Amino acid sequence: MDSTAKEYLSPADIEQFLLDNPDFFVGREHLVDSLTIPHQRQGAVSLFELQRSRLREQVQQLADQKNELMAVTQRNDGVFRQFMALEKRVMRVHNAEQLMSELQHQAAELDLKVVIGVVGHSYAELALKQSNWALFSENNIADKYAYLGRIKRSDRELIFKEGTPVSELGSYAVIPFEHPNIEGFLCFCSEDGSRFQPSQDTLYLNHLAMVIAYQLNQLQWQKVATLHVPTNI
Q1: pTM, two decimal places
Q2: Which residues of 59-93 are buried (b: 16+ CB within 10 A; e: fewer)?
Q3: Is 183 a residue whose pLDDT tops 90?
């Protein structure tokens, strides 16, 4: 190779050549044997050793991912079963206070906090301004079935009356009610910032929210009047 070619042949050119010619080393195995590559821990290693080391790392990464997936699946299965049991208990309560008690007990069992907001509700703990909920929905839910993840402070202040239920780095699952007479949300809150993530499925949470909205619409409160909307469905 003349000096002019050496001057203009960059590492990127060599890389592209090898990518375009994957069979370059066929018949030139002696080159592979003679190549050595600097390694941070092992000094200079052969290309074969480097490939074998990278393969071991990739296999270990796949094993770790599999174990993590299995752990998540088992945890989700357990959570699903607990929420299914909660749904059955919610359907058997006789008043709204019992409904809230069941929700709070189950949330505590899962190391979560639960918040319910209902537009136009006369009970202070549940009362939610329609304008606040509309803005929160526009910012975070739009045409989705739920919002999962962290919530910025300005949006938290729209829907949580008593300040942030969990720490700044916590995560949330906000599920809007789908009911003709109930506008608002069911929210589970976690101190773990990775507990609720956008990629997670919300089918069972959406169904639970539907059942809760149904019950909120028909159950009476022992101490206060409930909704300004009619109780028929």
Answers
A1: 0.64
A2: eeeeeeeeeeeeeeeeeeeeeeeebeebbeebeeb
A3: yes
